[in-house]
Amino acid sequence: MAPPKLLSPLFPWLIILTIFLLFLYSSLLPFQSPASTSSSSSSSSSSSSSSSSSSNSPLTKIHTLPTCNFFKGHWATDPNRIPIYDETCPFHRNAWNCLRNQRANMGRINSWKWVPETCDLPRIDPFRFLSLMKNMNIGFVGDSLNENFLVSFLCILRVADMGAKKWKKKGAWRGAYFPKFNVTVAYHRAVLLAKYEWQPKQPSDGDQDGLKGIHRVDVDTPAADWASIGDFYDVLVFNTGHWWGFDKFPKDKPLVFYQAGQPIHPPPNMLDGLKLVLENMASYIQKDIPRKTLKFWRLQSPRHFYGGDWNQNGSCMFNDPLEELQLDSWFDPRNNGVNKEARILNRLINDSVQGTDIQLLDLTHLSEFRADAHPAVWLGKKDAVAIWGQDCMHWCLPGLPDTWVDILSELIRIGLKTG
């Protein structure tokens, strides 16, 4: 018999090693299979969700929901809704302080809540908002309707910082500094946005139908009140439109438009002049205001003169908002009513900001309902109505502009989060 091979003592160990490797491989399979299954499943799920819009996954729904449209909705009464501030706010402007002026029905005026169609609109939390805006600044630029907006904002924010101080630096018309948060919120008065100045009639002008002089408007030059503020503010809100009428600039003191330092020929009418200003100011904002700045252009605040214009005994003594079906009869330009200009000007503004990073703050529609929310005859001065008529243009505070603040604060929060 042949002697045994030398390798035979290793044979049992080879068998043991083989068994061990088979065991190890089989034990690893459970850890590998779910991954490949998950990947395959995920791929399949992704393919499925892209071909179907009715996924049941909450996560999918969150990501596919469109951005909330805060501007479309309806007003609903909320008997528990009360203003955040009262008549003692030091930033009030007398004519809009309807609580102090004892405007009738203020409790009902402030019981209305704006309800967007597709989402909820939370009320601003002044503490949380100022914490979000810490070390940042917000500026409003435009006419007195932006000032009306600002006053509401200041009075709301003061609840979170009672040490807020009046602030008028850097050319601001008015504003406030909130020291606990190092935040400034201010208004720069620039009613036409563009630079304009009064030029008395010159002897060389001759006798031109009683002309007393002109208001020269440089359509391509921003007013000095705001031309150099861009580096200071992190959020800017612009508006214009309420001064573009013959009640402000009658035929004996007309607007005359200049570009590149020269009169424009043929001379534009007022609406065409406004269009040139809007286009040039939107271009200036786009080029000269830092890209990181959140920029908003607030569309028109509607007026509610009934029975005549402001100087024709127009009135707004209403107890409730208008109904949806009434809005076109009040505001559609085709009806040629006294309040038609808001929608006309909105079209020009909308066209002018196209192609820029300026966001439209479309507060017009929700404000059209609120014929009940103006100061009307409660103006705080005895002879104000006799001199100026009822105020059916500005808004009572507290009141409708508080809802504007709710919307703006949400858009700022979203803009800072996604910017």
TrEMBL record:
Record-level Gene Ontology MF annotations: O-acetyltransferase activity
Signal sequence, start to end: none
GO CC annotation: Golgi apparatus; membrane
Protein's membrane topology: Single-pass membrane protein
Keyword check for Transmembrane helix: yes
Presence of the UniProt keyword Zinc-finger in the record: no
Localization (cell): Membrane
Coiled coil: none
Location of the Trichome birefringence-like N-terminal domain: 67-120
Low complexity biased stretches: 36-57
Annotated transmembrane regions: none
Database matches in InterPro entries: TBL, TBL_C, TBL_N
Domain Trichome birefringence-like C-terminal residue range list: 121-410
Major location (coarse): membrane
Disordered: annotated span: 36-59
UniProt entry keywords in alphabetical sequence: Membrane, Signal-anchor, Transmembrane, Transmembrane helix
Similarity remark: Belongs to the PC-esterase family. TBL subfamily.
Protein name: Trichome birefringence-like N-terminal domain-containing protein
